[in-house]
Design goal:
Oligomer: single chain
Order of helices and strands: HHH
Shape: rod-shaped
Structural class: mainly alpha
Helix content: over 70%
Largest sheet: none
Number of strands: 0
Strand content: under 5%
Length: about 90
Amino acid sequence: MSRSYDSIEGDIAKARDDLATTLDEIIDRVNPKNLAAEGKVKATAALKDPKVLAVLGGIAALVVGGVTISTINKRKERQRIEAYLAAKRA
């Protein structure tokens, strides 16, 4: 059973249309604006998760604690140096 020329031509036209549709979808998916918007939505959703908020809070507390301890240690060291220099002058 051989196919007619019109049948083959119709199949090729349908395949061409399907390919064009697929390419349009791929272009839409990899468009930087769409990727950025999708990333923003995912990031916003992730930041609303209580587990993520707890982890970020813990990290922030560690950073603030580290900076505070470092500042206190620097002040103590400066006071020791000033006391040493004052004693040496006297």
